[in-house]
């Protein structure tokens, strides 16, 4: 497992488009998620996560909590699983659905089978967070909080949450951002 840090925020960069199917679909009806369908009136949080990464496991309850609260402030959220499931079957769709149901995800959890979306966003690790304003311009590329492979202590600053609240209120993210750290994305062919 390789640990990586995310690059600094490229303020104002437009959200790359995507169209990824919902894993939870009703027979005869497939739901497709896009940045426009996932966004809220005040912005969008795009998260690259997976099931097996210890960095993600350490913060998943906090991600769920923060996304649930951010929705009340007009921020929509979506989680994208970018890993090559043929090499990491625990990140496969059936396990994704089980995890989403167990933790009652308040956001869609979709798979980027082609890995095109992860490449276009410039995602490098799980978790990797991209916070966009109402105009879908990038304003945050930092960490959730001080967690690493273990959850940060209770009472740790909620960096992502606070940044997204600032974006909801002003359309601008904080100038100072601490990079996220996590497991490298498991790309096909290396």
Word description of this protein:
The structure is a single chain. The model has no long low-confidence stretch (mean pLDDT 94). This protein is α+β, with helices and mostly antiparallel strands and 190 residues long. A hairpin with a 4-residue loop joins β8 (128-133) and β9. It has one domain: Glutaredoxin, CATH 3.40.30.10. The strands form 4 sheets. The chain has a 3-stranded antiparallel sheet, with helices on one face. A 3-stranded antiparallel sheet has the order 4-8-9, covered by helices on one side. The chain has a two-stranded antiparallel sheet with strand order 2-3. It has helices spanning 35-38, 54-71, 93-103, 116-121, 159-170; strands spanning 3-5, 20-21, 32-33, 43-48, 75-81, 109-111, 125-126, 128-133, 138-140, 181-184. The longest helix has 18 residues, at 54-71. Helix content is 27%, strand content 20%.
Reconstruct the topology from this structure.
Layout: E1 3-5, E2 20-21, E3 32-33, H1 35-38, E4 43-48, H2 54-71, E5 75-81, H3 93-103, E6 109-111, H4 116-121, E7 125-126, E8 128-133, E9 138-140, H5 159-170, E10 181-184
Parallel strand pairs: 5-6
Antiparallel strand pairs: 1-10, 2-3, 4-8, 7-10, 8-9
Protein name: Thioredoxin family protein
Domain Thioredoxin: 9-149
InterPro entries: AhpC/TSA, PRX-like1, Thioredoxin-like_sf, Thioredoxin_domain
Structural class: alpha+beta
| CATH third-tier fold name | Glutaredoxin
Give the number of DSSP strands.
Answer: 10
Q: What is the level 1 CATH name?
A: Alpha Beta
Q: What is the CATH architecture annotation?
A: 3-Layer(aba) Sandwich
Main β-sheet, spatial strand arrangement: 1-10-7
Low-confidence parts = none
Instruction: Give, in order, the helices and strands.
Output: EEEHEHEHEHEEEHE
Choose one word for the global shape: globular
Strand content: 15-25%
> Domains counted in the coordinates: how many?
1
Protein name: Thioredoxin family protein
Domain Thioredoxin: 9-149
InterPro entries: AhpC/TSA, PRX-like1, Thioredoxin-like_sf, Thioredoxin_domain
Pfam family, one: AhpC-TSA
């Amino acid at each position: 497992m390789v640990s990586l840090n995310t690059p600094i925020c490229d303020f104002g960069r437009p959200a790359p488009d995507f169209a990824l199917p919902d894993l939870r679909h009703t027979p005869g009806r497939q739901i497709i998620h896009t940045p426009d369908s996932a966004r809220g009136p005040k912005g969008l949080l795009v998260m690259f996560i997976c099931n097996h990464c210890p960095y993600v496991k350490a913060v998943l309850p906090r991600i769920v909590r923060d996304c649930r609260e951010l929705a009340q402030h007009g921020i929509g959220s979506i989680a994208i699983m970018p890993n090559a499931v043929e090499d990491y079957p625990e990140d496969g769709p059936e396990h994704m659905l089980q995890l989403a149901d167990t933790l009652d995800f308040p956001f869609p959890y979709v798979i980027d089978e082609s890995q095109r979306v992860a490449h276009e966003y410039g995602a490098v690790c799980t978790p990797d967070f991209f916070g966009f304003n109402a105009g879908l311009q990038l304003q945050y590329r930092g960490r959730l909080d001080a967690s690493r492979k273990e959850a940060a202590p209770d009472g740790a600053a909620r960096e992502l949450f606070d940044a997204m609240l600032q974006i909801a209120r002003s359309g601008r993210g904080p100038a100072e951002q601490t990079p996220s750290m996590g497991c490298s994305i498991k790309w096909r062919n290396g």
